[in-house]
Amino acid sequence: MTDQSIAGRAAIVGLGATEFSKNSGRTELRLAMEATLAALADAGIDPADVDGFSSYSVDKVPEYEIARLLGCREVRFFSQVPHGGGAACAPIMHAAMAVATGMANTVVVYRSLNERSWYRFGSGSYGFGDTPIFDNVNYGWYMPHGFHTPAAWVGMFARRYMHAYGATSEDFGRVAVAARDFAATNPEAFFYQKPITLEEHQASRWICEPLHLLDCCQESDGAVAMVITRRDRARDLTDHPVVIKAGAQGMAEGQQSMTSFYRKEITGLPELGVVARTLYGQSGLSPEAIQTAVLYDHFTPFVLPQLEEFGFAPRGEAKEFVRAGHHARGGRLPINTHGGQIGEAYIHGMNGVAEAVRQVRGTAVNQVESVENVLVTAGTGVPTSGLILGSE
């Protein structure tokens, strides 16, 4: 580890979350405060001592208001990472950088959504014509051709992947079935006690071919928060600090937001390849050192190329990985043991980071044996991020 690396220099010491629902009945600010206070209580830290915050875009909860309500005395660091779900891991990386460099001592990372009861990310009606900023103008080139929703954008990549590598809708369904199996035994999951079969997946209605309804994540209300501090201080706060062994962000050639259709190949996720190389290089770990992973599952087709980008399967062979059940309960690399965004809730990926924390702590409801390192990824199809969290 060089002096410039963040590897192993910060740890997560507090975790808090609200319930996950379709109608919280509270503001996003209140949800954020509930999760943040729970995380600080878990860490045993006075709210007034928080001096840093990090979250990510498509967020309506300003850090200054949380700071005011917490009674923070001095806030010395705050950041908001762009690109929505692609930023799900980046705030933890930013927090680690802040505490490792002395910019802050105690950083709260949070995500709060009323994404079902207040507004919907995938509605296909965004008012782009009224706000001609760059992203909106860019999407204007795609929408006349039917690319109105995230499902349509992902469907383009999925169809090409199927054509190139022989993957099938059933392979995507195997990802959904495994996620719902984990959710069925997770009391915090919206789909608790509601597993599905592959036949049910195949019978679910089309959203945008080749995506069925059960290939798509939920829309959820809820909040998750975490507390990050220096590793040496973490040992004084908890017997089980969750060490941030590596953190990375990534963009790749030809990158756009969900519409990188003009690359030479659209069967992979090269931005996650950037993240993978950075995480493994920073931590000194390899795919064989990972016991379980939380892979961003807003849509099932993108789980397969993630397995390939991170070296768990050769290019084009992730379909064999899921056909063998390596991703499922009892498999070689169980993924999304909380149920993922398909089965637990869609808190824009932050609930996935929370599951990684629980796996390292040994408190997950679907605990994997002898966990030392957990890989977490963020949103796919956009500039993205990732983490490796582990035990001391």
Task: Give an overview in words.
This protein is of the alpha/beta class and 392 residues long. It is built from 13 helices and 11 strands. The chain has one domain (10-118, 217-390): 3-Layer(aba) Sandwich (Peroxisomal Thiolase, Chain A, domain 1), CATH 3.40.47. The model has no long low-confidence stretch (mean pLDDT 95). Helix 1 packs across helix 2 (63-70). It has helices at 28-43, 63-70, 90-100, 134-139, 150-165, 169-184, 198-203, 231-237, 270-283, 303-309, 318-323, 340-343, 350-361; strands at residues 10-17, 52-56, 77-81, 107-114, 206-208, 211-212, 221-230, 242-250, 292-294, 373-377, 384-390. The strands form 2 sheets. A 9-stranded mixed beta sheet has the order 3-2-4-7-1-8-11-10-9. Strands 5-6 form a two-stranded antiparallel sheet.
Secondary structure layout:
Layout (H helix, E strand, L loop, with lengths): L9 E8 L10 H16 L8 E5 L6 H8 L6 E5 L8 H11 L6 E8 L19 H6 L10 H16 L3 H16 L13 H6 L2 E3 L2 E2 L8 E10 H7 L4 E9 L19 H14 L8 E3 L8 H7 L8 H6 L16 H4 L6 H12 L11 E5 L6 E7 L2
Parallel strand pairs: 2-3, 2-4, 9-10
Antiparallel strand pairs: 1-7, 1-8, 4-7, 5-6, 8-11, 10-11
